[in-house]
């Protein structure tokens, strides 16, 4: 069967059918093709018949529509009225001859225009041929929804009850009266699909008509039998542009939970809100160990708290998923989880002792000390962290006895060093409290006493306090101790001249030497005077 034109409302269109002459229809330009005439069906014509009969479904025609049927054949063209039940009959002048063919169309005259149907064709059969489609009504196809701009279609036709050996084709007609596609792939379940020809697409608001055509070859007859279904008319829907989803490119944050311990009655966590699109709201759904869920709303900083229905037990796991909502759109993130691990942590009940640190003095180049590992769980290792005055950190591993040593730049008076011990056992770590050590001035010796350098109480008097030994006028060195916290101090008086206290270790050193030299000189002068007096 060839279908190269459709006889709906439209401009002059050629209609070509198998074994049929060309015919022309006209269109009332003011008429919109919301209604289309269903294709007619002709009964089988046998050689010698003098009547050609057929029918058309006119049940959905607008009120006031009049129908006529036109037959084209070897005797020319004749037109008859269609009865109210949709049947029509043509009386032939001469009996139908062998190999002849007839074509019939239906014309509908409505208050708004004239419509013409697709043609039905029939070839004259040998006498005694049985019509295999006699009594079979072809079901109208069901069409999947169409939208503006679609270029393909799909649907289903109910093929149950079809005579054996039949096949189906689905034709598509647009609202201008033009055939735009056909589907030849109706499968054994009645499903079919097709694509519009010449790059055409369905238009919103226009009416498209779909008809199923069944065909079957009769035994020994080269011409197959055809039969149409009624039309299924479809109006494609307008496509509403999709709203822009503000969450489309946003990665919803995974909840991060705070550590848990046995006996806790709340679960705390946070989500990162820093990259959230404007006007996005969040909820966090937490799944408890018993499978129940609780949904909470984080605060403006992303923090949330879940009240637990029972205290946390050792080894329990909690999970959570964040849901973001924005302008009616929702999106969920990846699952976060937290497991109570205190019972499995060998360091849980172990207190890491802070390090014992030796004093550090000016110009020292090491910081040394020792750690106490008494009671440490098996397989525990330790490192000591030293924080330098500038904030830089160093770490060392103590030796088997717990001793450690850090090399440092020459220590300066008043600098502060912080030290801390970290214990590690498997995947678990634990820190000690931090201790600090401040660089001290070095304590080098004893202070001195006042010496008398002459028998006649003459000469010079030297009062010497320093960080070594004091020398008396007789040249002896007393060993009186000077408190370690006392700053070295030297005051010398000689011929009404005073040397003021030193202000640095370097000054203390050379002033001490100078004092000893002056006292020695005073002693010699005393001896010399005694000799002169003698």
From TrEMBL:
InterPro entries: LPXTG_anchor. Residues 440-486 are annotated as: Disordered. Coiled coil: none annotated. Residues 500-534 form the Gram-positive cocci surface proteins LPxTG domain. Pfam families: Gram_pos_anchor. The chain crosses the membrane at residues 510-527. This is Gram-positive cocci surface proteins LPxTG domain-containing protein. Residues 1-20 form the signal peptide. Keywords: Cell wall, Membrane, Peptidoglycan-anchor, Secreted, Signal, Transmembrane, Transmembrane helix. Residues 445-461 have a biased composition (Gly residues).
